[in-house]
Amino acid sequence: MGVHKHIKVILSRIMLAVNIVLAVLLLVSAWGGHINPHTFGWQVSLTLIFPFLVVAVFAFMIAWLVVTSRKWLLSFCTLLLCVCQIRTYCPINMSQPVPKGSIKVVSYNTYGLGWGQKDSTIHSQMMDYLRHSDADLLCAQESNYNMGHKQRVESAVAHWAYHDSVFFEKGGNALTLFSNYPILDRHIVRSSSPNHVCVAYRVKIESDTVVVVNCHFISNAINPADKATYQKIVTISDRDSTSEDILRLGRKVNDAGLRRADQADSLALYLERYKDKPIIVCGDFNESPLSYVHTRLCRQLNDAYTASGNGPGISYHLNKMYFRLDNILCSDHWRSFGARVDSRQKMSDHYPIEAWLKRVREK
């Protein structure tokens, strides 16, 4: 065997080995959300890198095709096994007109109603957004505000006939529901994380009593130093420390994922009591659409964005962290239309996500 041919064989084997590793990681990333992170904690981090793995495996498929090797089938079959998850992550839907009688639902992590960025101009923009919102139901997370501006906030939300806030952290963080429909009562859904709750409301919408849940799953507590590290990782600006940084950030994300899993289990158990009722769940999940949290709740509910949105739907957008963390889920009593992320609204580190829901009546 010639030297050049020998080198070619070695390179081919190395490429195949890397391809196999990436294929396995992609499968775990795609389907790991079906496993409780208490069983396998690293699936929390792996779901976040799903798009990078898809691109890498696709690149290997193209590379094998270029060199006319049948090894392209490895990547092709791997991608084929992930088609459903690729659609969940980045759906493509035909646009349909919103039918008469639909309600508009919005979920928005408002970053302290715009005060999180400590800029009065941004706060004013947030007030304008709320004042002109045509949402029938708006679930706001991190909706705490400086009490000195209470009158200004109340003026901006006055067009909603009903609203209710629940403060659940020492710092005054809050979950708020703004509604055009009567709020009958509320229930706090607790889990093993006492300072993070889901608030379930019973809302009267025409002849229905609808369960509307506003939730904010525990964050990864990524501080400014962590964000700087993440940017260093994605730009590969410091190769010596990248592996250590990845492991450290991964462990941090995984630990938070364990507590989010407990929250998801508690909420799913609560919703099981109301499985015969129309249900709408909104919130900042702080997780990928392929995560255990999302997968667990979608055993009972449907993702409005997956059903009627288009593209990856990036809702968190700062520090080069581009993820769809915000969601609107609904029971089979609803059909969704026109789901989208409103990237024009830059007052928070999140964009609002919205969808139109039409009640499906049983024949």
Provide a descriptive summary of the structure in words.
The chain is an alpha+beta fold and 363 residues long. The protein has 11 helices and 12 strands. The N and C termini lie far apart (73 Å).
- Overall 3D form: elongated
Strand order of the largest sheet: 3-4-2-1-12-11
Quaternary class:
single chain
Strand content: 15-25%
Tell me the Rg in angstroms. 22 Å
Residue runs with pLDDT of under 50 for 5 or more positions: none
Could you say which structural class the secondary elements and strand pairing correspond to?
Answer: alpha+beta
Looking at this protein, list some descriptive labels.
363 residues; alpha+beta; six-stranded mixed sheet; 11 helices; 21% strand; elongated
Give the topology, please.
Elements: H1 3-31, H2 43-48, H3 50-66, H4 72-81, H5 83-89, E1 103-109, H6 120-131, E2 137-141, H7 150-156, E3 162-167, E4 174-179, E5 183-189, E6 198-205, E7 208-216, H8 224-235, H9 239-272, E8 279-284, H10 292-297, E9 302-303, H11 304-308, E10 326-330, E11 334-341, E12 353-359
Parallel strand pairs: 1-2, 7-8
Antiparallel strand pairs: 1-12, 2-4, 3-4, 5-6, 6-7, 8-10, 9-10, 11-12
